[in-house]
């Protein structure tokens, strides 16, 4: 038999079993779960490859693709499967990661978001052990992509990585790559949704920037960026709230870095304390509450 046909049939069978898992019929669902679990236990690599091939297939049913992303993310949170992942040869892991990374450019918003979580899960396993160093260069590059969807999903991925890792898991070069990729996207001329995602991921990433805030020139860039953005007129309320949260986090982590900017920060926060938007006013007040605690 033609091996290509066998491979295609295997993927079709795998996809049909996932369809069973998504069934509302309890008996059909349990049958699908049993078969997929059996495949996972019998041939871990083959199962992951099938998941990745479905995930990358833009004409596959979207719910099936989303299931594959969630399935990979979930198994990579379990010690048994983390060990199996780490026991795979490097070429196999790199092939899987390349397939997964390609989905950051998917036409589907849901698939891009699901893929971001999968990448963060892999980083949680590999980065603390000094593996997958390429991911930092890759994301710092794709976060500048001309395609806004690709750019946005890359930025979201950086935010998820920041939530899953500790500062000590990254070296300073890796931190710099991601931090300045985010900083470059804090731009009112950016696509508005890209801008919003950059604010959220920048907020998540601030705890990693300890050494950057100890350097006068870098600290100046980071603090000035947030202050300048908060000084713009006609910003959307959710963007203002996010930027104020960044300012609050800076006050919590690096309050001494704000000393020479307190005059303009006072003007900005006093302005936003009067905002009719309750969430904005709360964040403006929270800045001073945080500063008093520190």
Q: Would you give an account of this structure?
A:
This protein has 294 residues and is an all-alpha fold. The protein is built from 16 helices and no strands. It has helices at 3-21, 26-42, 44-56, 62-75, 79-87, 90-102, 109-126, 134-142, 148-164, 172-184, 192-205, 210-213, 216-230, 237-254, 262-273, 278-293. Helix 3 (44-56) packs parallel to helix 6, helix 9 (148-164) runs parallel beside helix 11 (192-205) and helix 10 runs antiparallel to helix 11 (192-205). The longest helix has 19 residues, at 3-21. Residues 1-9 have low confidence and may be disordered.
Key structural traits:
about 290 residues, mainly alpha
* Binned strand content: under 5%
Low-pLDDT sequence parts: 1-9
Instruction: Count every helix, treating DSSP H or I runs of 4 or more residues as helices.
Output: 16
Strand count: 0
Radius of gyration: 22 Å
Beginning-to-end CA distance, first to last residue: 71 Å
The best one-word shape is elongated
Q: Give me the secondary-structure category.
A: mainly alpha
Average pLDDT reading: 94
Helix content: over 70%
The main β sheet shows up as: none
- List the helices and strands in order: HHHHHHHHHHHHHHHH
Describe the structure concisely.
The protein has 294 residues and is mostly helical. It has helices at residues 3-21, 26-42, 44-56, 62-75, 79-87, 90-102, 109-126, 134-142, 148-164, 172-184, 192-205, 210-213, 216-230, 237-254, 262-273, 278-293.
